[in-house]
Structures are given as C-alpha cells and as structure tokens.
Amino acid sequence: MKSVNRRNFLKLTGSSLIGLTVGGVALRANAQEKLAESDPTAVALKYVHESKVEGQYCENCMFIQGGEGEAWRPCQIFPGKVVAAKGWCTAWAKKG
C-alpha cells in the first residue's frame, strides 16, 4: 500500500472540497427547471400551475422549499424541479 504524505493528503482533500462545492452548485442549477404540467409525476398528482382550490397553494404547502415570495420554488415532491407558488397538486398538505 502506498503511503500518503502530508502534501498529497492536502492536495486530495482540497480537490475533494472543490469537487463537492462545484457539484453542489450544479445540483442547485438543475433544481431550477420548471415543472411541466405534462410531466408524468405532475399528471399523476394532478399538478397545475394555478390552484383552483381556495386557500390551497404550493406556497402554503408543507413540501415547498426556498424563499418566501418567489414565484417558482423547489418542492420535495418533485425533486430537481421548481413549482409555481400559486400551483397545487393532490399531495398538498397545510404547513404546520
């Protein structure tokens, strides 16, 4: 087994940290794709960009993420996608 000296160890850990940081940025960038109403999961959960159910919107659902007041935000139900804050789906659950 090859021994790792301090210099090589620091190079390896530095490269790993850079890779994790760049990878995290790439994941956040991918999460910006807007969910299409025609997406198979969206169809299965009857997702719509504009809720027809009074008082039930993605923005007041427990699964929504991201900052308040944003028109499109990440949702735990649809990983890698953002949903309309005024949208709705059958998985809607009131924020606690």
TrEMBL record:
Organism (species): Glaciecola petra
Domain named High potential iron-sulfur proteins family profile: residues: 29-96
Subunit structure: Homodimer.
Summary of the function given for this chain in its UniProt record: Specific class of high-redox-potential 4Fe-4S ferredoxins. Functions in anaerobic electron transport in most purple and in some other photosynthetic bacteria and in at least one genus (Paracoccus) of halophilic, denitrifying bacteria.
Signal sequence segment: 1-31
Residues forming coiled coils: none
Protein name: High-potential iron-sulfur protein
Family (UniProt): Belongs to the high-potential iron-sulfur protein (HiPIP) family.
Pfam families in the cross-refs: HIPIP (PF01355)
PROSITE patterns on file: HIPIP, TAT
